[in-house]
Design brief:
Chain lengths: ~525, ~300
């Protein structure tokens, strides 16, 4: 008998703009000790179906139209609120995508951790604390006694996700729902968290529903995979069967979207456009001066995409920003023979036209009060590239370039999906016809399928406009797919450099090896 | 935290000095003087009086002698209450005003806080619209209108509560406190509604719900702390407004607090009393702003560790 069986679940959202069917007639079941992977892109209904079972979708506007979700002979969709509260966090627990925002910043970690125990099981605080400390140790938090009283902001993202996992496990649930638990994390941390989930699943023999947009992540973990698209299940089966013999077009597309292979050799002129020598960036903190970038030297050749790889906090974004004078740095850096670091803001202005930047989060980097036309027209006007009649034509040409329909010109950022927004951001960056672009994690916030499209777009634009690019990423698979050469940064120091294929096949530094091992493809 | 407070107190010194200096010269340049009453005083008497209070000396030396006294905590004699010092008058008036202000703040926090939270829990519902409409009326209605209105209804028609006084009859403190607190209750309601709505849409509220906590625990334990932060930051300025605004209430309800002395002093050109009240209130306002900053920092762990390490 399955632990959970969901039958004919349909969920819709009733808003002013009409009714959206988010989940259409979805049925699946899960046995004790089994791991089910639900895969699909944003908006496919994979999260909504699980949140509905948990009673976590806001109603209204959400409405469960029909269906049944049986857990231990209780229909989760029809039981009264008290029963539902009793199951939530107790028999069924959840972990979420972004550990940075999922812990209450105003309550100490330990207090949040023991809540399910003290509330559901009537355990005394002393016993609960004991239990919590054991669990913190189990999920790999060092010095759990001291960290019990820490505040969430004192923890890194990976540690917070460990706390979230401990919090989900503390009441010993039978089912754990993990909603994109590693999407916001670096590859190395992602690997640790995935291993932790797999380990705990085995040791406690609990059932796990693992939701992700990334098939590669789910591959090593799930017994069965269920692929969702537009609210419907398009394919379901054993993990290996789905991978080796995908039936549905969409599944094939998802598998193809996993970044694999290396870039084909491109025509790079052996002439440096950007030359960086002994770059140093220091920040002053309460603890004193802190060297974020320590004597880093590299060059970017004309027409080349140079990958810059490292984990969060390694200083990779700082390098990109210091080249564009968004952070002050010392050392030497030249662009087309022009010295960069000693320029005043005013002297730097004409260079801005030739050096542009693409940021990670297309939700945050676009001005929500400017429509696409204004966003793209602004750099053209500021740098005197186009005006009047020519402006409209220039903006439309840009939109064609980045694959945005011209009819979207008057729409605002919030009306677009993440991928489309990143297209707008790329359009803004290439508007001034720059020679050099710093792309700071341009695809990290995107679903794999969208990621693939954006990578292809970047590649074609680089070729078409003969651009040079510094491509910053934590994801080696992506870097391998798009870059010519790569440099690896750890704690502000360059530890490895070389052609992508060389680094990939024979990494010299131990850190590079650990990064390579952490890419999801290698987990399976 | 100690250093943070120390620097804030240090900042207060130039602020107070500027307030005193500006007020000192401002009241002196206002037409009239303390002894220009309706019935004229013989010039000889007036000159004698002015000599007694050092008013015959050059303005700048008066300023320096006032500042000298001020540094020793002496606010000087009053002109209109013979034989009594400004310090004495503040000591009699302030406890009444402070008590009134404290009750008004409590009214503001309790009524405003509850209304705001209730509204935030169901945005755009009837309960939201009703409490926010009442809050809007509260903000728009001046206290000199609300006071007599409440007196009319509860004091005269219903005869539930005394119409004036402070501490003379049972229940006579209720109407002044509500009248003074009403406007601030309305602001608090709007601030706490905004704060709570912001917090209740956060991911960590979803986490709390996913733990199976009942709604009241989600709201009170996980939501409230972040949600009332804007209110806490507002309390400093609110207390300042209540102290300086209480003279209207004190007039309407015949209460002998600091506010009435202050206003009377302005009419009477009672230079030292005006200055004394101004310095005293300015000091209090600075103190309460500091207090609300400290409490806000205490409620926000991230700020607390930042402030704590400075």
């Amino acid at each position: 008998m399955p632990l959970l069986s969901v039958n004919n679940l349909s969920v819709s959202f009733h808003t002013r703009n009409g009714v959206t069917e988010a989940v259409k007639d979805v049925s699946f079941s899960l046995s004790k000790g089994e791991t089910l992977g639900i895969v699909g892109e944003s908006g496919s209904g994979k999260s909504v179906s699980c949140y509905s079972i948990m009673g976590l979708i806001p109603q209204p506007p959400g409405r469960i139209e029909s269906g049944q979700a049986m857990l231990d002979n209780i229909d989760l969709l029809k039981c009264n609120e008290k029963t539902q509260l009793d199951i939530r966090g107790n028999k069924v627990a959840m972990i979420f995508q972004d550990p940075m925002t999922c812990l209450n910043p105003y309550i100490r970690v330990g207090e949040q951790l023991i809540e399910p125990l003290t509330y559901h099981k009537n355990v005394s605080r002393i016993v609960a604390k004991q239990r919590a400390i054991e669990l913190l140790k189990e999920v790999g938090i060092r010095d759990p006694e001291a960290n019990f009283d820490a505040w969430p902001h004192e923890f890194s993202g990976g540690m917070r996700q460990r706390v979230m996992i401990a919090m989900a496990l503390i009441a010993e649930p039978e089912l754990l729902i993990a909603d994109e638990p590693t999407t916001a994390l670096d590859v190395t941390i992602q690997k640790q968290i995935l291993e932790l989930v797999a380990d705990i699943q085995k040791r406690r023999n609990i059932a796990v529903i693992f939701i992700s947009h990334d098939l590669a992540v789910v591959k090593g973990l799930a017994d069965r995979i269920m692929v969702m698209k537009s609210g419907e299940i398009v394919e379901e089966g054993e993990t290996n069967t789905v991978f080796n013999n995908p039936q549905h077009e969409y599944t094939k597309k998802l598998i193809a979207a996993i970044p694999t292979g290396a870039k084909k050799a491109s025509q790079v002129v052996d002439k440096s456009l950007v030359q960086v020598d002994n770059l140093v960036v220091e920040f002053t903190t309460d603890q004193g001066r802190f060297r974020a970038i320590d004597e880093v030297s590299f060059d970017v050749k004309k027409g080349e995409i140079l990958g810059l790889v490292g984990e969060s906090g390694s200083g990779k974004s700082t390098i990109g920003r210091s080249l564009l004078q968004l952070v002050s740095a010392s050392g030497k850096a030249t662009f087309d023979g022009i010295s960069l670091l000693d320029k005043s803001a005013k002297e730097f202005l004409p260079l801005r036209r030739r050096m542009q930047m693409i940021f990670q989060d297309p939700y945050a980097s676009l001005n929500p009060r400017m429509n696409v036309f204004d966003t793209l027209a602004e750099p053209l006007k500021v740098h005197g590239i186009a005006s009047g009649e020519g402006l409209v034509e220039a903006v439309f040409a840009l939109m064609d370039d980045v694959g945005l329909d011209r009819k979207f010109a008057r729409k605002y950022p919030h009306e677009f999906s993440g991928g489309q927004r990143q297209r707008i951001a790329i359009g803004r960056a290439i508007a001034t016809k720059p020679d050099f672009i710093v792309a700071d994690e341009p695809v990290s916030a995107l679903d794999v399928t969208i990621q693939k499209q954006i990578l292809e777009l970047i590649e074609s634009l680089v070729k078409k406009h003969n651009l040079s690019m510094l491509f910053i990423s934590h994801d080696l698979a992506v870097v391998r797919r798009i870059c010519d050469r790569v440099i690896v940064l750890k704690h502000g120091v360059l530890v490895e450099r070389g052609h992508v294929n060389e680094v990939w096949s024979s990494p010299q530094h131990q850190y590079t090896q650990s990064l390579l091992n952490a890419t999801p493809d290698a987990i399976a | 935290m100690g250093k943070f407070i120390f620097y804030r107190v240090l900042q207060a010194i130039p602020v107070l000095w500027i307030v005193v200096t500006i007020t000192f010269f401002l009241v002196r340049f206002a037409p009239g003087g303390p002894f220009d009453a309706e019935k004229s005083v013989p010039p000889v008497v007036k000159a004698a009086l002015e000599a007694q209070y050092n008013l015959d000396q050059p303005l700048i030396s008066q300023y320096f002698s006032y500042m000298g006294d001020l540094l020793q905590g002496d606010l000087g004699p009053t002109f209109k209450y013979p034989g009594r010092s400004v310090n004495e008058l503040i000591a009699t008036g302030f406890p009444v005003t402070a008590e009134l202000g404290l009750y008004a703040i409590l009214v503001a926090l309790v009524i405003g806080g509850i209304a705001g939270i209730v509204a935030a829990l169901k945005p755009n519902s009837t309960q939201d619209y009703v409490s926010m409409s009442i809050a809007m009326i509260g903000i728009c209605m001046p206290t000199f209108l609300l006071g007599p209105l409440l007196v009319l209804v509860f004091g005269i028609w219903l005869e539930w509560l005394p119409v004036s006084g402070w501490g003379d009859l049972p229940g006579d403190k209720i109407l002044p406190s509500i009248t003074l607190g009403a406007m601030y209750a309305a602001y608090v309601a709007r601030l706490s509604r905004g704060g709570m709505m912001e917090v209740m849409s956060q991911d960590y509220i979803r986490t709390a719900r996913a733990k199976g906590l009942p709604n009241y625990m989600v709201v009170l334990k996980h939501g409230l702390r972040g949600g009332i932060l804007p209110v806490v930051s507002y309390l400093g300025p609110a207390f300042a407004g209540i102290l300086s605004g209480s003279f209207v209430i004190e007039t309407v309800f015949q209460i002998h607090g600091l506010g009435r002395f202050y206003v009377q002093a302005a009419f009477n050109r009672d230079y030292t009393l005006i200055l004394g009240c101004t310095v005293f209130l300015a000091g209090l306002i600075i103190l309460f702003n500091l207090l609300s900053d400290v409490v806000a920092a205490y409620l926000n762990p991230r700020l607390r560790s930042e402030v704590g390490s400075k």
